[in-house]
Amino acid sequence: MLTPISKATDFVCITSAAYVSQKIVFHDQIDLSHVDALLGLLGLALPFITFRSARVYQPFRNDSAISRAVRTLVAWLAAQLILAILSNLYPGAALRNIWLLWWTVIAACALIIGRCMIKALPTVFRSWWFSPSRIAIVAPSGANAKLLERITFQTGDAFAAELIFDPSLPHDTMIDRIPVVYELQSLINAVRTEKLREIWVLNSPFQPISIEPLLHEFEHEYVNIRVLPLLDECGPIRSYFGDYRGIRLLNVKVTPERGWGTVAKEIFDRIFALCALSCLSPLFVAIAFAVKLSSPGPVLFRQYRKGMNGTIFSIYKFRTMYQGADIPGAIVQAQKGDARVTRIGRFLRSTSLDELPQFLNVLEGDMSVVGPRPHAVEHDEYYKNLIQDYMFRYRTKPGITGLAQINGFRGETAQLEKMEGRVKLDAYYIQNRTFWMDMQIIALTMIKGFSGKGAY
């Protein structure tokens, strides 16, 4: 509902800022050049392309206000940077750039103010015209403070729980100052006494409970009875409602849909990999000579890994161990001071330079620039029975770098907890991936991702 309001507000802010900045710089001049006019029109349209790429208009509750504001500013600055580059290609750029600078600053301030006003709209509307809906919650074997936090997070201030019914309890109690009853009749009496018009049944799809008694009891009364499928969220996979080919479904564990965003990612991967291979070719040659001189054996090391949906492919790396160091049929992670690693190999591993040939895998379509790091097939067979939803990592293409790697889960994972942390971050990336997130991961990899304590 708020997305059209956000777009309209942004357009007003950007247009108004363009007009004010034009008055400041050009004063009352009306003889603007055709270039000025065309760049002005482009400046009104371009931000909504960058806003779309940066996912500025995602559902309102999926983001914090600060995150949304930062993403809006970055998208706005990106649009203005493109406009400034185009401006400098034509005569009269000096005065026009001053206009663009004023426009950028004024619009940035206006966009932030507009974001704050939109953020306050739901609260203002509810306080002026609407009060939160008072509801009774039916939570069999699940009445606790964490449950209430999850409901509050999803609904904001739209609903207020007045009563909880949990038949598994031995007696009535209180949770966060909300009465909790264990008898059905107590629930029925409270709904009528307090004049509640909403009953929410938190029902697990795997252990459904009957709502027939409630339907029968309130058959002739105007009480809304809603069933909320509720899943245990202790694992890394988040369930959500979505449309699949026009059908509304509860997605429990699914591969992300391949839409236009996937096509854009595929194109970006190929272009980025081609540029990386072209720019880094001198470094490739130097590393190849160093590897060849360090010990007998091939320059490149190949190993089988799993790709998207478990497809096996051969991954490329610069060889960092002495030839024949691996035990056939078993993969042992490199450890600190590992005697199998050559001197140049230790340097390549600590700086992640041994991973550079994987841009060839990206060009071949087996990998992406950003995604969960693929593990050796033997490691997959070991960990899949120890870590919940471990194999979910392969619902998307594996990457050269990923969210787990820039957050410290890089290199050796000797403790099970480290692998669990990596899997959790990989699952989060798969379910929340955006182009903006990929750009952040790439930037952070360049800043801090080429070194790490866990890489031996």
Automatic annotation (TrEMBL):
Keywords: Membrane, Transferase, Transmembrane, Transmembrane helix. Pfam families: Bac_transf (PF02397), CoA_binding_3 (PF13727). It is an enzyme of class 2 (transferase). The keyword Membrane applies. It is found in: Membrane. Residues 265-449 form the Bacterial sugar transferase domain. Its EC number is 2.7.8.31. It comes from the Bacteria. The chain crosses the membrane at residues 37-57, 69-87, 99-118, 271-291. The keyword Transmembrane helix applies. GO terms for molecular function: undecaprenyl-phosphate glucose phosphotransferase activity. InterPro entries: Bact_transf (IPR003362), EPS_sugar_tfrase (IPR017475), Undecaprenyl-P_gluc_Ptfrase (IPR017473). This is Undecaprenyl-phosphate glucose phosphotransferase. It comes from Paraburkholderia bengalensis. The lineage of its organism: Bacteria, Pseudomonadati, Pseudomonadota, Betaproteobacteria, Burkholderiales.
